[in-house]
Structures are given as structure tokens and as C-alpha cells.
Amino acid sequence: MELSERLDDVRARISAAETNAGRSHGAVQLVAVSKTFEAEAIRPAIAGGQRVFGENRVQESQGKWPDLKAETPDIELHLIGPLQSNKAADAVALFDVIETVDREKIARALADETKRQGKLVRLYVQVNTGMEPQKAGIAPEETEAFVELCRGELGLQIEGLMCIPPAEENPGPHFALLARLAKQCGLDRLSMGMSGDYETAIAFGATSVRIGSAIFGAR
Dihedral (C-alpha) 115, 161, 77, 170: value to the nearest 10 degrees? Predict the structure, then answer.
């Protein structure tokens, strides 16, 4: 199956999941995860009308996205991987959305950089819904206070919450938890769901899904 066919298939499944969940068509944004793929592998997705992409690493993204964004200026680029504070300046310069604000040090670095660069970057707080020690993210019970710190003291534009459920668990309860936390924080954007579980995520209220292998193939 060609990339264009895989992209059409994912779009059709998102649309069906929206309908099944009683949600309006177009309620869910597709973030095509292009990490590890070179520019030549990404261009067919752009040609197919895809405009929102997700990357895991700042340095890798710097090698391909400036040219791609110059070619297609309406591309929206999301950082969906962990961010180190020493990469905050580069991340603010390149990305439109950063989905992995997961600790105070990063929040403060982003606040400093957005002021310095005069650029408004939309942000998501990553929540470690499974409390996995090896995984980044704010603890669920600390989420509301952290969002308040980011919005209040630091003046950051927190748009929503993001999570990556434990691989071996039913993702539904994790998606439900993230939706509940977002409501408590007064947020209406939920980045949750990947290639294996995005239809479930849509049923629980995802507003964006991060899909890589179902579009680009195995890495």
C-alpha cells in the first residue's frame, strides 16, 4: 500500500470513529508522526494534503523541517518527544506546538525563550497517567497545580494535556483520566492516541491523535 493510500485509510478511520463517538466530522486533528523519516519520505504526505506533523527530537527536526516549512509555509510542526532545557531555544524557534511540557525546569526555560524570541508557542502538559518511572510526565494529582503555575506565574499558553498510556494496559482508563484532568484544569484539548489505539482515544474525547507507523510504515 502506498503512503497516500495509508493516509486516506487513517483519515477514513478517524472520520468513522468521530461518527461512532457522536462527534462532529473534523473534530479530531491528525498529527502525522514523521520521526526518523527523511524529507523525501515526508513530501508525499504533504502532497496528499497533510499539514500537521509530529517529531520526537529537536536536532533531527532541524535537519529537515526548515526546508520543508519553507516549501509549504502552512505546515504546523509539533514536538511530541522529550525536551531538554538546553534545547528550549531551538525548540521554540522551530516548533509551533510543544506537547511535552513535563516539569517546572522546562516550563521556565520555555517561558524565558518565548519572551526572548517574541514567539507564541502553543503548549501541552504531558501527564504520566500510568505513573511509570521510566516515562516523562507530571503526576496526575499534580497536574492542576502545574497548569496553574504555567499559566499564571509563567504566562505560558497551555492549550491542553497529552499522555502516552502504558503499552501493556488497556488505554481507555488512561484516556478517561486525562479527559477528567483537562476538565478540572479548564482545558479542552487532548492529545492522546497513537497508531494502535487512536479510535479508542477518539471515543474518550481526543482532539488530536499522533499517528506514525499506520501512515509512514514500520521504522
Answer: 160
Helix, strand, coil percentages, rounded to 5, for the chain: 45, 15, 35
Distance (Å, rounded) from C-alpha 121 to C-alpha 96?
5
Separation between Cα atoms, residue 7 and residue 2, nearest integer Å: 9
Rounded CA-CA distance 50/47 in Å is: 7
Confidence of residue 218 (pLDDT cuts 50, 70, 90): confident
User: How far apart are alpha carbons 20 and 134 in whole angstroms?
Assistant: 35
Q: pTM of the full predicted structure? A: 0.97
Residue 55 bridge partners (DSSP): 79
Q: Position of cell 494535556?
A: 161
